[in-house]
């Protein structure tokens, strides 16, 4: 039967704890919660793409995409995107950024379902996103 | 290979952002986070079923069900229900409403697993629910 | 086609509401949100394993594992673990406990993906965990 494969894109560190950035088993691919950290540089601590929602959201989406691609998938395969924000006041702006981003991705399949809720995140982080994909 | 289908019941607006109310691909169906908005009326803004937990929970469950049915599924196919409340004090009442609702649905399969957590939601909304189904 | 089976380990009560502690259908197994309650004793109310993060996290993981095993699965089959904490200040300690726990589990497959967010939980509970598994 099919094995579970860990997905660790070149842009990501080895995971800092006993979890995988993403896993694929058969046609199911799960992306772990991503935040807006810039691509990993050897010897540097994880650094957010910027203090604002725009930079962090775009970087977070890029990080999710890198994991999808590492597993042979893309946005078209994503069934569910979970968006965690820290501030209800960020919803409208996140939607604008999200919509513009997905316009550019030129999806050929319907967009994923989504749930957005407002939670606590570590200091300095405004957004976290995870994703579940089903490959064709 | 199987395509991803967007599920947009007649009761729902076209999604306000680049996401789907639900998607189905093969035997997997994911319902996006639903809230207690009444069925869409042309030219009217989304309106919660009421200010209270009961009306909102029942409407939210009806909205989830509409998406399941649009995808050829029903509550019996649901594996996981995520319930987001805004107030720990609402847990007991939500459970009562939830139990009575599912009694009425006359499930022929075991009920779904569930996780309930307490988060922030946009002003006026007390509950959000999403669901993952696996069709037979 | 395959039926949905409710997973109720001997350590668990009958669920207190119309949900299952876990369900399996075909090769998909979903574990409901678990907390750090000790194994059920007839006539006693649910009791956390202790007031602290360590006891609760370890008990919660044991509770998830019991449900996986009831469904014929184990940690190696888990694709996604969702960790809900109540305090951002608990992240480092949770990671230590989590890593040590999974070292001991002697996984033969890559660890699951994970999302950790900070939410409200009922009084006295510091952690809740759910899991999605795909069996081979």
UniProtKB/TrEMBL annotation, chains A, B, C:
Which Gene3D superfamilies does this entry report, sorted A to Z? RutC-like (3.30.1330.40)
Pfam families listed in its UniProt record: Ribonuc_L-PSP
Q: Which CDD domains match?
A: YjgF_YER057c_UK114_family
Region (Disordered), start-end ranges: 1-20
SUPFAM superfamilies the UniProt entry points to: YjgF-like
Quick one: a GO cellular component term? cytosol
What is this protein called in UniProt?
A: RidA family protein
Origin species: Streptomyces tagetis
